Amino acid sequence: AIGVSIGHFWGYIPVLMCGAFFNYAFHNWNIVEIMIESLGLGFFGAVVLIIGQWTTNDNNLYTSVLGLMNTLDGVVKISRMKLTFIVGIISTMIAGLGVYKYFVNFLSLLGVFIAPITGILIADFYLCNRKSYDKEGDGGVEGCKYGALASWAIASLGWFTSFGDIVPIPIVCIIVAVLCYCTAEKMSVKQSVAAPEVSAAEE
Q1: Are the C-beta atoms of 197 and 191 separated by less than 8 Å?
Q2: What number is the average pLDDT over the span 53-60?
Q3: Tens digit of pLDDT for each residue in 70-119?
Q4: d(C-alpha 143, C-alpha 146), whole Å
Q5: Whole-model pTM above 0.85?
Q6: Exposure string over 116-125, b if 16+ CB within 10 A, otherwise e
Q7: CB atoms inside a 10 Å sphere around CB 103
Q8: What is the CA angle 46-6-51, rounded to 5?
Q9: 3-state secondary structure (DSSP) of residue 200
Q10: For residues 69 and 83, is the Cβ–Cβ distance under 8 A?
Q11: In the chain, what is the straight-line distance between the N-terminal and C-terminal CA atoms, in Å?
């Protein structure tokens, strides 16, 4: 706790303030251009920027590979070293194409497409299947829950709605996801109840 507090408060805030001062002084948001062109730091500025990016992106690479390893577990057998190398190369190539220009749009899309997942998790845990979480052991669901996928797809359409002027679009997506998932779960329960009745009638 002490190390994080020192690093993020006493260390990081002054860095942000320096960046803000340079931004206002040179009327330029691009710190690379400020350090190399405006301040004339040249090689030293490039080294500082490279080291700064390195300390950030090595953590990004680690978390990305960790998530992919968990996702691909049981699907594709690949060592962590090879996957790290592949992800690093692909990420570097994408960065070289200037994808940072669309970073804000990318974050906006993530806010829309990830928000429905939050709604589905909330609905499944608190409204639909709370008892299954209390059971000891695995208690998981085998296969794919198509109702969850359908709810996610429908809620993601919130990006194209006009509610953003009234309610933030991610909030709209979460609400729609909760409603759709609860409806899908009720329909699946009715089908599971009706199925034994049909089979009994056939017998």
Answers
A1: no
A2: 85
A3: 888 878 888 889 999 999 999 889 888 888 788 888 887 887 789 899 99
A4: 9
A5: no
A6: bbebbeebbe
A7: 9
A8: 15
A9: helix
A10: yes
A11: 66
